[in-house]
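Annotators were shown the component list below and the corresponding predicted structure, then asked to write short factual statements about the assembly.
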Amino acid sequence: MKGSSVVVFVMRRFAVAIPLLLIISFGVFALVHIAPGDPVRSLLGARASDPATLAAIRERYHLNDPLLVQYFKWLSQVVQGDLGVSIQGNRAVTSTIADRLPVTVFLSLMSTVLVLGVGIALGAVAAFRRGTRLDRAVVMFGVVGISSPAFVTGIFLLYVFGSLLHWFPIFGPGTGFLDRAWHLTLPALALAISVMAIVVKITRAAMIEELDRDYVTFARARGLSSRRIAFAYVLRNALIPVVTAAGLIVVGIVAGAIYVEVTFSLPGLGALTVDAVQKRDIPTIQGTTLLFSVFVVLVNLAIDVIYTLIDPRIRFGRVES
Amino acid sequence: MNTAVARAGQEGPLLTVEGLAISHGAVPITTSLSIVVERGETIAIVGESGSGKSLTARAIAGILPPGINAAGAVTLDGMPLMRLAERELRKIRGFRVSMLMQDPFTMLNPLLRSGDHIDEMLRGRPDFASRAARAAEVKRRLAEVGIVDEDVARRMPFQLSGGMCQRVALAAALARDPELLIADEPSTALDVTTQAEIIRLLRRVQRERHMSLILITHNLRLAFSTCERIYVLYAGSLLEVGDGAAVERQPFHPYTLGLLLSEPPADIRVPRLVAIRGSVPRAADVIDRCGFADRCDWAKQICRASKPPLAARDASRFTACVRQDEIQGELDALRTAALSAAPITLRRDETEGPLVRVDALVKTFVGPRGRAIRAVKDVSLRIMPGESVGLVGESGSGKTTLGRCLVGLETPTAGDIRINGLAAADFGAMAKADRARVRQTIQMIFQDPYSTLNPRHSVGQALSEALGASAGATGPATPERIATLLAEVGLSAAYATRRPASLSGGERQRVAIARALAVKPAILVCDEPVSALDVSVQAQVLNLFKRLQAEHGLSYLFITHDLAVVRQIAERIYVLYLGEIVEEGPTERVIGDPKHPYTRRLIESIPRSANQDAP
Amino acid sequence: MSAPAIAETRKTKLPRHLPIVILIAALIITVVVICAVFGEGIAPYSPFLQRLGVGDTPPSAAHIAGTDLLGRDVLSRVIYGARTALVGPVVVATGAFAIATLLGLLSGYLGGLVDSAIMRWVDFMVALPGPLVAIVVVGVVGGGYWTAVFVLVVLFTAPDTRIVRSAVLEQRPLPYIDAARTLGISKARILFVHILPNVLPIILAYVVLDFAFALVNLAGLSFLGLGVEPGTPDWGRMLFENRNILFSNPVALLLPAAMIILTAVSMNLIGDWLFERIAK
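Structure shown to annotators:
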């Protein structure tokens, strides 16, 4: 009974995620046609426009077929791992992505650790010390963080720690784990601050709400230890809204990574995307956009599943409308 | 030294509260309260909303919300609680003083199984070091509060009923065997039958453990039936203190008398309830005078000169009324008059056709995961023109759904509704003119006075919309017509410019009645219209309903859980239980001689004091 | 007797109702608005005047904030930049909420098929990584600033609709709505005369918060070279054009960067403050 309701819930989420992925993939596919001008020209890039090449491109991207047929042929190629060829340098998009992926993954993971660790801790501390100077400082940090996009924070960090103080390197991704962490500290911080602000805000609000709950008062009235109340009552209940907001966090990190990579000139996927957009390299744009979007959708799906597992009200089959 | 103090403490009262003054910043909430609780004694702190009773309870337990401060002294067995550090207090809470709160559904941690709430209280004690020992103890503790189903310990709080949650919470509150339990409105959020069970349980547990109990309640009748001593709290000050039986027999303060009289009796129908005019003030507004002076018939200059202190009138009685000696004779006369009020009975000739006819009504809702919830199953009823009919039931009985079907807020799944002869089961399917006629015939009054009016509209706007823009619009709304409507419900024309936020609950409910009257309906469906009001205000609104019925020949379908209220207003009663009518008949007959076991249980659950039981 | 007392306490409480932080925030926004409207009168130079021979120089008496690579006065460009910093976000925030209010009211009050159709669309839009969609669509379609504004309106409408809808759903079960329905008040009147005024304060607070978010997003697109046309004085664009002179004239980056943060912080503070006042 209990198990089945979780399965039903997860299946329902999957049922929503699959059409979502199809629509996204169609949007990505349609980029070729949305771009102003002839799709063939878009896909041709800097190559010589002799009839043979044009025909080859038409053949490669099935441009002679009706739109839907084109889409399904493209989709089946994508599923097989063929994302087309970049118009710059005639390289397979998949191998370019594979080159760029490690930096982005490293950067994102580093910031995620910062965001969750520092963000939840700051939000919790502010809530427990509500109304104090510390709380007001944390709230102000939250407002400034939300108002400061990663590229602006990045410029300030570059200037202060890279240019004025020379504490951190200002160029390149570094090699090896420690060196890379060293090189990516400023970018990860720039990326983390704006997203962290969201986490701080949500955690603080959720914790304050929990602190006001009857069951917390009742727990105090029964003389439970403050540690037991803080963890088993307040934090545990407050984490549910934080988990629900994880979707925002993931989108924030993915989008922020794009800006941070450009700001710090890091050879990651985000910088690749922006570079491709500026050069109108449609196949590359398609490849990275698809990867980012699928990642976001899958993470959201995972969050939903985690959410059902931690909230007993759903686990035990009471689904609120 | 320490043992000497402890022994000395064993002899004195368990708890003494002296000069307790609670404030929110600079705004006072209570002024200088003194309370004494003996070992094994039960006391009640009775007060209406805004009296400060709940915060008093929390001040005693040392768990005031942030921003609220308390001054004075709370002494438990010689220990000055308000001077103890939080970590010291934690050793007292649970072990010596524990607390039970009002809302059973929000008192338990939604992420903990119900048994864990007891289990966590036992951890750290050497005898319950093992999980198995604790599980056995949890079982024993649940059995003490009447839960024998072992599965309950494993269930999550949201899977339990309100009464069950309250029992689990009580077991958790008692898990460390406190000497004093503070119960803050422990039964108010529950259904009437469950209320009586929880109160019986509290009394049993209190007696068995020889524990002291502070019951915080708004219900004077409940206080008299449960507690030995009564503290009457009003706008932050104690107005009267005394033995329950004595206070009930002969109240020494006009407010206590007023409360007693405005409480509708369940056993007789009185022509008119004695109501206290006006509404409860804020403590901060009456800081320098008798809090009750503005509503008191005996108030003189002296009552407003300064705050009268609580003074002893005999060995165990205290009153804050400075004029008690002079007016006691009048108070007694009123009390006697009320006790011997001649009951009235109403008879109606059933010659006309019914105004409302409901036949075989069924309403099914689609619940979670497509499960059908049958709120109303096969209900038939009649309401004659000018007749006042009571629909009595607890939450989940379908009484509200039935009322909403009548006014077209819900569409029944099956069955027939005829209003003034017009088929009105499905408002969507009716012709526009018919719909307008039905709306002019039947209107509704809702329970919650605080959201029954649009907060963005003034009283005048609300009434002029009902007069001019509703389906039953009778012509443009003029200031005169609005003033007439307001006068109808006992409000002055000046109320037209007021916003709902500046009105008291009783005033809002009056405006809501005026709004419904704008279309000159023949019948009002009243869904618990007085249950959210203070007792002193409730009587005013009930009197208004009676007057309107007498003056306009209005019919009512009075939906309520409160038999005493329905006793005063309805000529005939339908008892609804789980979506079905289980009993029907004239009010006196149903309440005086209930046939169905459920009706009997409802009537038994009305709190009765020793005085009432005596002939 | 108590009425004058209440009025008095209100008067003395006024400063507390308008905290100093909010005053400063309002002041900053006022300065930005003045720069946007009276830019010509305030700016010491034309923002387009190039002096290639001068190149990028650090702050001096002639150029308080120095010059950029093309020798243009940085301060003048920052003052003119207030225009794109205000116009786009205002259009995005009000446009998105105008559509969202209509959709949210319909979806929340009517329910049924209308509701599920609108909510299906909202769920889809919210699941997309918005900033990435903006970059790709603006980049591929082209069209600069106004395309970016349009894309942001579309992206913002979905979450805003959700906000309006849940505010409507909060009002819908309240008895004052039931009372209006029982009286036979028309649906349109219930929606616009009863529900709308009650959800409007929440919408207003969110419009202010949306403005800040739109500013940050538009500046971001300009920073990637995708928003405004090249050469336009715009804070985001200045970060893009001056990214290589961080060491020769850091003010050329730090000043527009600070303006973005200050404006966004001010709007967020005002929005949060409005929101808290409504909640009380």
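Statements collected:
1. The two ends of chain C are 26 Å apart (CA to CA).
2. Confidence is low (pLDDT under 50) at residues 1-15 of chain C.
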